[in-house]
TrEMBL record:
This is PhnD/SsuA/transferrin family substrate-binding protein. The lineage of its organism: Bacteria, Bacillati, Cyanobacteriota, Cyanophyceae, Coleofasciculales. It holds the Pfam family Phosphonate-bd. It comes from the Bacteria.
Length: 225
């Protein structure tokens, strides 16, 4: 579902459980406090995640791209998935703010609607660079990765969490959390984790997503300026 539809579905209860962007979790609970509760956060089974519930934003270009540094991207064509995506857009805006730049650094950004579409835009030459969720990049087949180069990585940041509607009974919410946390303890759970390229699930609290709140505020300040 597109971001806007996901937001509405989670707010009205049509969707009661999901794996969502950490920023969407923050924004929904900001609009309607206690709308969603955290269940657990996945720990990706790749070395760069260091057995922690984190992820990154990878700035990708084509392998034959002339760009060799972030500052060289001034005026380049940026592809991003959604305006409210943390890894695809907001963290990049916050990085621009940290560098003393403005949103005009990328004069004509292209909104694609999905990380996969941003990758395609770069591969097909419709964009020079894209900010991609590192989990999406890690899952790319070698045939596509061989055509791309990570110019820069931003993060680590709190990984998108599994959430549940606060309207769901507390006993059921706790049972689901316990099931996720205990997956490594049983053979079937180990199989599910391995098939999903996950090492385990980790407990998380609302405070763990304060970093996303801070980065998002930087991005909003840049856009307002």
């Amino acid at each position: 579902l597109p971001y806007a539809e996901r937001e509405v579905a989670l707010q009205n209860g049509r969707i009661e459980i999901g794996w969502i962007c950490g920023l969407l979790y923050v924004l929904l609970n900001q609009k309607q406090p206690h709308t969603l509760d955290l269940l657990a956060a996945p720990v990706l089974d790749y070395n760069r995640y260091a057995n922690s519930p984190v992820y990154f934003s990878d700035l990708i270009v084509r392998t034959d791209s002339p760009f060799q540094s972030f500052i060289a991207l001034r005026g380049a064509r940026l592809a991003y998935n959604e305006a409210t995506s943390f890894s695809g857009y907001r963290i990049l805006l916050a990085h621009l703010a940290d560098q003393g730049e403005t949103a005009a650094f990328f004069p004509q950004p292209l909104q694609t609607g999905a990380h996969s579409h941003s990758i395609t835009a770069v591969l097909q030459g419709h964009a020079d660079v894209a900010a991609i969720d590192s989990t999406a990049y890690d899952e790319l087949p070698h045939t596509l990765k061989s055509q791309l180069r990570i110019l820069m990585t931003l993060g680590p940041n709190p990984v998108p969490p599994f959430v549940i509607s606060s309207k769901v009974a507390p006993t059921l919410r706790q049972k689901i959390t316990d099931t996720l946390l205990n997956l490594p303890a049983c053979p079937h759970g180990q199989t599910l984790l391995r098939q999903s390229h996950l090492r385990r699930f980790a407990p998380v609290t609302d405070a763990d997503y304060d970093q996303i709140r801070h980065v998002n505020q930087q991005a909003l300040t840049l856009l307002a300026g």
